[in-house]
Amino acid sequence: MLTQGLVLVGNHPKFNSALETARNVAVTKTPVLISGEAGSGKKALGGYIHTNSARKNARLEIVDCSDDASMVEKIVLGYRDEESGKFNRGVLELANGGTVIFANIDALDESFQKRLYTILQELPDYELDVRILATTSKNLSKLVGAGKFSRALYTYFSGAQIDMISLRERGTDVELIARHFIEEYAQESNTTEQIYLADEAARKLSDYNWNNNIAELKAFIRKTMTNMEGTTLDLQAIENGERKAEFTTGEVDEDGLKLMSLKDAEKLLIKKALVFTSENRTQAAKILGVSIRTLRNKINEYRSEGAVYFVNLR
Length: 314
Hints:
The chain is α/β, with parallel strands linked by helices. The chain has helices spanning 13-26, 42-51, 69-77, 91-94, 110-121, 140-145, 151-157, 173-188, 199-207, 213-227, 235-249, 262-276, 281-288, 292-304, 308-311; strands at residues 32-35, 60-64, 78-80, 87-89, 99-103, 131-136, 161-163, 196-197, 232-233.
């Protein structure tokens, strides 16, 4: 299914289930928490909820809670410009009758979390009718348990939760999404000729890990098409794109290996072993040549550091 104007393409059952839930909650005013890995399409799903609701003709505002704490507070509540003296209304007022998405709500400053909960509860007192959505790439219930996120604010969103599946789990959806981006880029570039995706190139794309999900696939397709020749995105074009991606993401030595710290290399190997074994820790530990206890300790270490994959690891 392709939603008009949004990058929500695919046929995977879990993806379709998330889309169906989004359609069901769109007709309500219930706050919704959308979780999933970075780049998996959480904000796009929030936009989908908005455009499928009675609020679609009103404003949709997005607040990135990972921005500077003081700036986030100003964007939410409004602020007076020091030079002009003009008061800039906050998003809750600007989006009256519409929707506000609090993206990366797990990053919201702890001192503002309880205050925001109180504000959201009091919106009707100020005659503000705003639909509230939030996205996160972390396990908020664990953050609540660790005392790092407001239980009240988490409870506010816990009534309706939607999980976005990662791209690497979606199999043939990768090809559908890639074709969508190819068509999108061709239109933006005013390309008159049709661009084709070769079967072997599609298989190559489907086998790739896509750590940053749809956002990474989109960037890869755009970079590859910018440098390709002809009208067919074939295996050679994909492999050229891979080499360019390697050289733009970090230092690469003469053997073609990306240079990184030992700690980052260790984290990457552990992640790859878990992905390869479908997160079977016993098998992953055997592949890595370590004990289950060592693997568990490493996973807990990376979780405490906020590494997205390990925070969301089952």
